[in-house]
Every structure is written in structure tokens, then in C-alpha cells.
Design a protein that fits this description.
Blueprint lengths: L9 H8 L5 E5 L5 H14 L7 E4 L3 H15 L1 H4 L3 E3 L1 H12 L10 E3 L1 H14 L9 H13 L4 H6 L1 H9 L5 H14 L2 E3 H14 L1 H10 L2 E4 L7 H11 L5 E5 L14 H4 L1 H4 L4 E5 L1 E2 L4 H11 L11 E2 L7 E6 L2 H19 L6 E5 L5 H10 L4 E3 L9 H14 L4 H7 L9 H14 L3 H6 L10 H23 L2 H11 L2 H8 L2 H27 L6 H10 L13 E5 H4 L4 E6 L16 H15 L2 E10 L1 E4 L2 E4 L4 H5 L5 E4 L1 H6 L14 H4 L17 H10 L25 E4 L3 E9 L6 E6 L3 E6 H4 L2 E2 L1
Parallel strand pairs: 1-7, 1-8, 2-3, 2-6, 4-5, 6-7, 9-10, 11-16, 11-19, 12-14, 12-15, 13-14, 15-16
Antiparallel strand pairs: 17-18, 20-21, 20-24, 21-22, 22-23
Helix pairs in contact: 1-2, 2-3, 5-11, 6-7, 6-10, 11-13, 16-29, 17-18, 19-20, 19-23, 23-24, 24-26, 25-26
Bound molecules: adenosine-5'-triphosphate and magnesium ion.
Magnesium ion binds next to helix 2.
Family: Belongs to the helicase family. UvrD subfamily.
Catalytic activity: Couples ATP hydrolysis with the unwinding of duplex DNA by translocating in the 3'-5' direction; ATP + H2O = ADP + phosphate + H(+)
EC number: 5.6.2.4
Length: 776
Amino acid sequence: MEEYLAELNDAQRAPVLQVDGPMIVIAGAGSGKTRVLTYRIAYLMHKGVDSFNILSLTFTNKAAREMKKRIADIVGSSEAKNLWMGTFHSIFAKILRFEADKLGYPSNFTIYDTQDSQRLIASIIKEMGLDKDIYKYKQVYSRISSYKNSLITVKAYFQNAELVEADAMAKRPRMGEIYQHYVDRCFKAGAMDFDDLLLKTNELLNRFPDVLAKYQNRFRYILVDEYQDTNHSQYLIVRALSDKFQNICVVGDDAQSIYAFRGANINNILNFQRDYDNVQQYRLEQNYRSTKNIVEAANSIIDKNKTKLDKVVWTANDDGPKIIVNRLLTDGDEGRYVASSIFENQMQHQLGNGQFAVLYRTNAQSRAIEDALRKRDIKYRIYGGLSFYQRKEIKDVLAYLRLVINPKDEEALKRVINYPARGIGATTVDKLIVAANHYDRSIFEVIENLDRINLKINSGTKTRLENFINMIKSFQITNETSDAFVLAEMVAKKTGLLQELKKDGTPEGIARIENIEELLNGIRDFVEGQKEVADVRGSLAEFLEDVALATDLDQDTGDDDRVALMTIHLAKGLEFPYVYIVGMEEDLFPSGMSMNTRSELEEERRLFYVALTRAEKQAYLTYTQSRYRWGKLVDAEPSRFIEEIDEKFLEYITPIESYRYKPLIDSDIFGEVDKSKLRLKKPVSGSPPLAHKPTEEQLRKLRKLRPTSSGTTDVSSNTNLFDQDLIPGTAVEHMRFGKGKIIKVEGVGQDKKAEIHFEKGGIKKLLLRFAKLKVL
Ligand code: ATP
Ligand code: MG
């Protein structure tokens, strides 16, 4: 047996060794589904399957990269290079580029991100003179997105009386027209939105049997991770491509299906058997990720769902500590608790930041956590907020680059035609848009032909428009001969973008310049990387595609040691030793917007299952008594999900004693805190301790103490109980380690630490409030 196969248990090895035929692996969290896919690919290659013939679809490109790395370890990196691995969107964007002309698209089509799509929809709504309070552009966007993911084209929409009726009932009778305009405008701009990447792939495979045959022959072996979250459009692509050879392996967990709201369809799992002949079904039951406490607590939660496939998940790992539940007064307190708990764990177990994750239901919750981490000087990284590539200054530079590649790109053009300001006003742009719609041409083409059409634009403006077009054209010429980095640098300078920001001079302006520098560095790395792979000039088009499809996780280089902050949705498939799940409150988690039906509530519960099963060693659940929501302090109630966990897996802390007025702890070294003094046990009978409503006076105090984002008040470090007069050079004695000398002191208040050189024990870093040093 090949050595690597010994790194699998028997149940995992079975689907790896079955080379041919359709198979499905349904198994709980942490049982090695992703590992099975990885090893299966390596095994296929060992069995002589050409790496060009393998297609593997993952939830993030980062997951694909990690799998590829592991496969390269096993089979060698030159072989692994040829594997097609990535998200549905990135793989099919590549295929669409090859085949674009068949669909009437240029191969240099732009990919509109959500913001581009929403801006375009907003402007269509405005141009049609519709009421923007009834036709809310974000809602319209998500309607259109769901049509596309169900393969409902504009034509199909108008033929579907039910849909038309539903929109009319919702007082949006002109939905179909907006949809039509949106599709037309994207097409004219040579742009596809995210959903198009799937929709057009389906169109391609349906309309062109020869193209379908080509890719069926190419992708003889197809593997799909997180199959439970594929939507209808993705499902059809997989089915079409695998139809000929039927070598398809999907893995998933119905208990982790969390994207129904975006059209993911759990029936894809249930129907798999029906779609293929002789499907082999495999189950994995042993969890390798988490402690017994976590695995069993997670089982006890998912057990409450009625709609589920029966599964067993067990682990041979240690019991581990119980899940800690803590009640805090407000979200600010919650942040401080999380930060101080992370800090204590780091001190006790000598851990870096990368071992910790804080998970929340909504992005808005991150702010309080961030404030607290910043105050403690704990480095963190937020995933899924405004990603780097969505920052204004970055999008500005990218818009110029997009125009160079595809001058028809309407959203890019509108973005920069007058930024930095060059005297081309909004009225002029509106006239151009009207003309472009009228002549069915792009705005760029309209400007190129200003002499031939009758537009009321004065000669000064006309010159400015022509200058703009000429500038873009000069960039195009540079792009013919130089690499993407040279061009991007030129764009930053010649367009006046950098000067504009320099003029600004504020700290924000400087930060923006730094971001642009960072972007240029990124482009340089990309170019260098491409040159290594093949002797080519790093193409700008490819860079832009990478950027458009980068999920937020993809920017994680993995080298910096930071606490990870993200929504639970993003955490799928990941694992961390310590996980804090914050905001465990009714109306927040489960979300107030997802409690109308049992199926919505069950999806929230699956989300909780996903959250808890990310933890390897220890999980924390926190909730508050009152929380600022929509700018108001509102009462909160503990989440029903806490109550649903079998009590024997939980340990409750009383919040106030736990950090706010924490007494000196009797412990000889910080590693051995007497926990009984920190935590009060939960009362034996009854449901979880119900939050005591804070008194009016407490609330007043809290509001006063509430830290602002610039962070001024910190109630957790207002104690001087732990301050000792220690400076480097002071001779001290520790009960356990004996005599030593202080080398360095850092931190303040409760966080004050000293690096001490002990005569016998060597150098140690101790938290002073636990260390109880005697000054000699
Ligand atoms: P999820 O449902 O969260 O996506 P999963 O089923 O994909 O989880 P993996 O991520 O593949 O599970 O595995 C979970 C952890 O267990 C990983 O750290 C993996 O390396 C480890 N693991 C899986 N199988 C084994 C094994 N046979 N021996 C040792 N470690 C294993
Ligand atoms: Mg996985």
C-alpha cells in the first residue's frame, strides 16, 4: 500500500480506492471529507489518470490551493500543477474565456462584482423613472440573482405567469423590464456578473453539443466538496459534465447546508442516487478535529432538527474542557471578555494569535470585538468585511485597468471618467448614457464618434472627453508591450490618482496611497509568479480575473499570525483550536429574520452546528443582556441554541466576577489558575441562567463607559491592583521558579507582563497579576 494511504482510516480509504463510477460521501463535520477528496486525487494520479482529466470544485480558492499543496507533496509538484481545482466561479470563468465568442461575448469580458451589478441596477431604476423606495436596488439585484441561479432567463421569466404575478403582487410589476435592461446592458458592456458565470456555462453546455463533448472528455474525473451547498445552476453543470463517464465523487454534510437562502438546494444530495446509476454511498463517522465534548455537544444540537439524514459522529479524541458559556452586560463587555480570554489562553498555553477565531452571525458584530482586541494589542484579521479589492481607491485603479482591457465596460467608465476631476460633469455623462442606449453602442464608442452624432456638448467638454479616451488608448498601447505592473504604475501616476490623494494630505488619504502601493506590490508579485510558471509577460487580463473572483479568504497568505474574525458562513470547512461564538442571542442568532418557518430555523441551527464544529480544543459561547442594535440599546435574551445543548457539556461563568471586578487570583504561577474562583457553576435545575436585566443605573453607567471606536474608556483595565513597581533590573523571587531578574516589562493594568531571567529556570514571560512576585 502506498504510504499516504495509511494516513486514512478504513472508511476513508474505501472511497479513495474506488477509481470509477459515481459515489457520494455523506458525513458529519471533521470526519475527513475534504481529506478524502485530496487523497483520492493523489490516488487517481498514481493509478495513471492524467492530471488534465481531473476537475475538483471547492468552496474557496484557498481550499483548492491547500489541497493542491498536499497533493503536490504526494505526487510531485509538476504533476499537480495541471490539476483543475478551484471554485465553480473561477473554473468556469476560465472556460467561458475560451468559448466566449460562441455566446457573442468578447474573450476579454469583464466580471462585474456585486457592487458593479448593484450600481448598474440602481441606474437602470433611475433611468426608468421608478420609485427607488419600491424598487430597492439591492432587493432587485437579489431577485435577479435568484432567477439566474434557477436558470430563469428573461424570456423564461416572462413566460412564467406565476413569477410575473408574484412580482406584480409585490408592487413591482416592472421587475421583468428591469431584468431585461440589466441583461442587455451587461451584454453591451461585455460584462458578466457572478451568476452569469454559471448561467452562461449552462447555456454553453446546452446549446453546443460539441463543446459539451469536449469538456466531458476532458474532465473524466470530477470531484465536488461541500456538495450540500451547490445551487441549481451548479448542480446542472456538474450533472452535464459528468454525464458521459459518470466518474463523479461528491462529498458533503446535509447538517452543514447553510446557503439555502442563496438558492443552495439540499435535494441535490437526496437526488444524487436518482441521477446516476449504481451510486456507491460511503459514510465516515470518526471525527478527528474536535474534543469529545465539542463533538457530542454538536450532535446534541443537530439532533433537534427534523429534516436531516441519520448520521453518527464520534471521536477518539480526549474529552477536553467543557464549552464555556458567558453572559455579559453589553457588546462592549463581550468584546473585552473575548479579548481578555484570548490573552489569558495565550499566556497560559503560550499560543500565537493564529490559534483563535471569533465567529459571529452578522458582520456588524465585529466592531466591538475589534475595539477590544486593538486595545489589548492583539493582532486580528477580518474576513468578509470590505475586502481589500473593494476599497474605493483600489476599485478606482482597477476601473482604469478594466477599461484598458475592455473599453466597453460601462461601470468602470462611469467610475473614472471624472475621477480625478477633469471637468466632465454628471449631465454630460447622462447624455452619453442616453446616446449609448439609443445607438446601442458603448459609451466609449459614443465618445469616439462625437463628431458624427448630434449631442449638445460644448467644445471644451468635448476636448476633455477626447483627452480621456486618448489617455485610455495610450494605456492600451503600453499594455501591448509591457507587463501588468508597468502599466498599473503608469495608470496610478498618469491619471492623476496619486496626486489627488497626496493633495488630500489627511491620514485617510495617506492610508489610501499606501493601499495603492500595496496593490502595485500585489501586481508585481503576480507578474513575477507568472514569469516563473511560463516565460510570459504577466497578463493584466488574468490579474483582473483573479481579483474579480478572489473570495475574501483568498487574500489570506497564512503567514501572519492573527486572530481570525469572520461570519459563520465564511468559516465553513475551516478549523481553529479556540473558537469564540459571540452574540448567542435570540433575534440575532437565530436571526430575527429567519424564524418564520421551521425550515428557516433549522438552517440557523445548522449554522450553529457549523460554528461549533470549527473548534478543535475549546469553544466559548457568549451572549449579552443588552446590545446596541440599529443605534439603540435593546434588551437581549440568551439564544435558544444554548439551551438546546445538553447541559453536561457546558460550564457557565458569571460575567461580572469573571473580569470586571476580578479579585486577585490565588495561584502560584499563571499557568495554574484556580478556576473554581473564576467561575460559578450553573444552578443545578432549570434552564440556563436567565439574564438579569441591568438596573437603570447600571445602564447609565454602561452607556457612559461605552467605548467609542477611537476607544477611550476601558473598564477592564481601570484597576491598579496588579500594578507592581517593577522595572528592568529589579531582583525578584517567584514561589515556584525562585530568584531572578526582570529583563523587560510590557503592557498595562491586568495585562502587565514581565520577562524574567530566573537563575534556575531560564527566561520566562509571566503575567504579573498571576505571578505574585516578591521584590527582593
Ligand atoms: P468539514 O465538514 O468541517 O468540512 P471534513 O469532513 O472535510 O470537515 P477534514 O477537514 O477533511 O474534515 O478533516 C478534519 C481534520 O481531521 C483535519 O485536520 C484533518 O487533517 C484531520 N483528519 C482527517 N482524517 C484523519 C485521519 N485519518 N488521521 C488523522 N487526521 C485526520
Ligand atoms: Mg471539509
